[in-house]
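hey m, so remember when u said the tokens were messed up on ur end? i reran from scratch. heres the input so u can diff it against urs
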Amino acid sequence: MGGSVSAVSSNGTYSFTKPNRESITLLAGLGVEGDVHAGATVKHRFRMAKNPSQPNLRQVHLIHEELFEEVRRAGFEVAAGELGENVTTRGIDLLGLPTGTLLRLGDEAVVEVTGLRNPCAQIDNFQKGLMKQVVGRDGEGRVRFKSGVMSVVLSGGVVRPGDPVVVELPAGPHVPLEIV
């Protein structure tokens, strides 16, 4: 089971969007080299204000490119990096993965999926009404967050657009993703 990397993005300053890069380097236990969210402890401003010593379970943010196609049908134009993700994938149901899934990115990098990204008001500041597109409901009426998954870096390495993504599911029973 796998897919590919469509784009990679990073930003050294706090900004909602992240510019696309030719490559990013993942650092074990830290995240994306030079990215403002890299670090062993939490770097998300809201979470730092609550408890700056908590572990950083949000080192690398991944979004499935198929989300951009979905929101385009609703009249929104979103490109890779514009929702703040570091890695944009294609061909993988990121939201359907269980907690603890390993994603092998390119030749060396491995990230472990820790949970769902909690979409924030900045999404509507980026494009008014977009938040309703990335928060939906499943067939049973439960809230479903669609704005990607968060992960931690287990093994570092360079990641580039076009690299394969290999999915390794954890041993069962599988635990569904929750917000981290």
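this time it looks ok to me. The mean pLDDT is 94. if urs says something different then somethings off w ur setup not the seq
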